Amino acid sequence: MIRFISLFMCCSLALLMTLVSCSENPASSSGDEDTAISEVDTTTRTEPDDFIWDPASEITVTLNGSGAISASGLVQIQGGTILLTKAGAYRFTGTLTDGQIQINCDDSGKVVLIFDQVSLASSANSPVYCRKAEKLVIFLPERTTNSLVDASTYIYDNVASQEPNATLFSKSDLILFGKGLLSVTGRFNDGIVSKDGLNIHSGSITVQAKNDGIQGKDYVSLSGGTISVSAGGDGIKGQNEDDLSSGFIKSESASVTVTAGGDGVVSQSDIRILSGTLSITTGGGSSKTVASSLSAKGIKAGYHLILEGGSVQVNSADDGLHSNQDLTLKNGTVSVSSGDDGIHAEKNILISGGTLTVSKSVEGIEAGKITIDDGTITVYSSDDGINATYGTGGESADGSLFSMTGGSLLISSTTGDGLDSNGDVHISGGLVIVHGPQSNPEVGLDYNGTCVITGGTVIISGTNSNMTQAPGSASTQYSLKLILTSAKTAGTLFHIEDTDGNSVVTFKPLRSYYSIVYSSPQLQKGSTYRVFTGGISTGSDYGGFLTGGTYSGGTLYTTFTVSSTVTSIGSGGKP
Question: What's the per-residue H, E or C state across 333-378?
């Protein structure tokens, strides 16, 4: 028999080609070999044949309020219960005010439910319950609007199983696709649950749930479509209690909006974001606080959170991006406003590209090891902007590390340290701008191990605390640590030029400051420089770092000649 592609009536062939590309394993070309960060295999079980069937073989089921009618003997109808026991494609139309579509197939092959202007509700439990099938596929034809509403209290045949527990519940792999709309209301517990894998490939899916919005056991793959979730618990969840390495979440090309009382997107395994858009609000947003016993993180991974592209916006009462182990930002645009940490990982954070903006946080970026190789990073924090720590507490070196080889890092910390490492600081490239606090005892730069600068440009403003530090003597690039005799008001320019009047650096701190730490290839041994404060500059302003233009009108503060790795002017701070 000639096979027809049902998608031809509503979807382009490009949709099928997209699926093929989505099923490949992106971990095979991750390029992370030098980071010692592992990634799970995020291959799904979705195949091109899942989207193909013979339209001539479709079985029509018409819902008529309290029941249904069908000319096929393969459809068993008992009152409001519609039982499907054979694989095939079933086209549903109409309204069922109180009933259930139940799938229980022993034979191989997929069951396709075509929702063609369908409204399903149940007063007993779930309106769609897949007990057994090789795969359950739900197709939403173009220009159709469909809805599922479950009971507010469930009646179970087997109380011990507690299944189903969601409006759309499948114990088999579940796939949703098409160009139509599906509204899912979970009045009892969850909205959409698959006890195997879950793939939302396309369509417009809206979920409102008392508890969790969307959940998959082996994986949740968001490979297209527009997905909107409003959940009292977690928004989108991957959880496999039998296999802690499973339950991954992958988002690619989808447009996802999540509002959750708990975590926005959470997996006990890996989360991989390749493209598309995600907009996440948790716990009421960053202006709220949550109890320590609750979790309202924006995106939370058990193993590895990987952002490879797309646009991610998080407004969270708890951490914005969180991993119990590792977090990698390779590309894309990420914006975070958090009531706690902006970006947090228990082990490693690697930023090798993309644009990251933490507009509000307590700790901006926190992990045992933080590595920046490239990218544009902006961090606003009330406590430490960068905090490299393994969380052991105290002022003893704990083996943590902040390392930067390229990119740009802009930090503004109001009451905490700007750049803080409970271990070492290594900078060999890039641009580091730190607007430190204006009050003691916190400082712009704080480390408990060593600070070695071999390249890049670093400019840090801070207090006159006796904790103020400069780079260490093992650095190969020259640095200046200046403690002023009196504080300069916020916005007062700090300027260094050589004896010929050529500008070396012009900096405009956001807050009042006593100290400046500066390191750059422009500082050369044996050369003499002049330091000015005040004045004006016509240069381009990047986070207070002014380049180009003309500086004028400042007051000469002092001159210095570079004779050692660190030139210290003024009293105060650590040696």
Answer: EEEEEECCCCEEECCEEEEEEEEEEEEECCCCEEECEEEEEEEEEE
